[in-house]
Design a protein that fits this description.
Length: 245
């Protein structure tokens, strides 16, 4: 399956997407949490909570949080699921640095470990984790099929995959307002707050290009996952995908 999101890059400067994404998130790391709250009116917290509550059905003990960013999902999972271990990985050293400070401030240094790693080449042996999560990250993968293949490789049999990703609403009533907000308001505020001219223009472009619904589920199936499901939230602006190995 052709994945259009793999062709959408933050800077269009000829470098690999992985390198561009790393530098973009390093650039916006100080403003990232503020922009997340502003862009979603704080609803991103509810989306994470909804996903974590879905994981309670089969409480995991060893979680890998891919594209962990500033650690919000990892910290929420520790609070709500009480796993034995959580490992968070991210391309961006800037994002990892903020995540580590947040975990230290919360007194969770021994519970959550962060690593600066590439999701397309995970530094773990096969079948280590019983749960793998990705929040708002898969649209940034240079090769989405390879990313899913790596997650499948390091997941234990019977393990659970949970992907939270932004998506485009289908409603003809909601879509015009969504397009106005994501294509004009967010890039304008993003440039003022983060001082990165391209980062928050890349955001709506990557959301529009990432596989959604059945297309995303098909990629998961092709990687080997089963029982793949999609749940759309908030007029279709966010989707939670779950699957099992």
């Amino acid at each position: 399956m052709e994945v259009k999101a793999e062709k959408v890059n933050p800077y269009e400067d000829g470098r690999r997407k992985t390198e561009q994404v790393r530098d973009m998130f390093d650039s916006i790391a100080p403003a990232y949490d503020f922009m997340n709250r502003m862009m979603t009116f704080g609803i991103d917290k509810l989306w994470r909570l909804r996903a974590v509550n879905m994981l309670k059905r089969k409480p995991p003990q060893h979680i890998l949080d891919v594209a962990t960013g500033t650690g919000d999902l990892a910290m929420l999972m520790f609070k709500k699921l009480h796993p034995g271990r959580i490992t968070g990985i991210d391309l961006s050293p800037g994002m990892i640095s903020i995540a580590e400070k947040k975990v230290e401030a919360a007194g969770l240094e021994g519970a959550i470990r962060f690593m600066n790693e590439d999701c397309l080449d995970l530094p773990f042996p096969p079948e280590v984790f019983d749960c793998i999560t990705v929040a708002y990250g898969v649209r940034n993968f240079e090769h989405l099929d390879k990313g899913y293949a790596e997650m499948y490789r390091v997941m234990q049999r019977g393990g659970t995959l949970c992907v939270i990703e932004l998506s485009t609403p289908r409603s003809p009533i909601v879509k015009p307002f969504y397009n106005l907000y994501t294509r004009h308001v967010i890039p304008l505020v993003g440039r003022m707050v983060s001082h990165d001219v391209r980062a928050y223009s890349y955001l709506p472009e990557s959301i529009a290009a990432v596989p959604q619904g059945e297309d995303m589920l098909q990629l998961m199936r092709e990687a080997g996952f089963k029982n793949c499901r999609c749940r759309r939230l908030t007029f279709g602006t966010c989707s939670i995908y779950t699957a099992e190995k």
